[in-house]
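### Sample
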Amino acid sequence: MDFTLKTYRSLLSALEQSGYAFRTFEEFLSVPAGGKVVVLRHDIDKRPENALRMAQMEHASGIKASYYIRVVKGTWNEEIIERIVALGHEMSYHYEDLTIAKGNYEKAFEYFKKHLAEIRRFYPAKTVCMHGSPLSRWDNRKLWEKYNYREAGIIGEPYFDVDYTKVLYITDTGRAWNKTGASVRDKVEGGLELKVKNTRRLITLIGNDKLPEKLIINTHPQRWFDFGWGWMNEFICQHIKNAVKKALVAFMH
């Protein structure tokens, strides 16, 4: 049974037992470390209550992770933001301002600064991360072709400030690991690639010391449940979404 909280706990244990040190993305950029290092990046697209469960699980194991939350209705939840920050995790903005502004760059940058200020009421955010907005015509990263996030006190963005020839990026976009056909924009340029069928296989590779020393593992908490109705609903809905994404990827190429 994949994408359950029990499976996620097993993934954390495998990383710990294999000797990986856990760093927030902010720490990863600020204090480069030798040896095995993993950044757990969580994109809170929806279901913030799932993110809180993951944050609590990590905290119980003494692990710090990086959480990026959208500002849209149904996702933005100040009580949950406060609780995740109180557990010692990094919290910042999962930005999609070019989409919100319908392609107006000037408005988008104003929105970005406003939304970042909202996040900073709870955490002194120094990194941000793009939301892919797969059904949008606008790629939110293109905002930085005209503006510079460093002007807002941001030291890094995962799609721009990591050398992926030295860091392996693993994402559960599409409810699979590095499934390119199910990802419209959640991709990185680099020499390291990994395709695994399921989380159990990923855990086996970690246990057998088959992965590089530097990892960024991106998860979307809305996919991870204890088995039950929520898990079944996500399973069915994601299969439908993947078919749509696959068509979009084919169209874009």
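The longest helix spans residues 229-252. This sample (Polysaccharide deacetylase) is used throughout the tutorial notebook.
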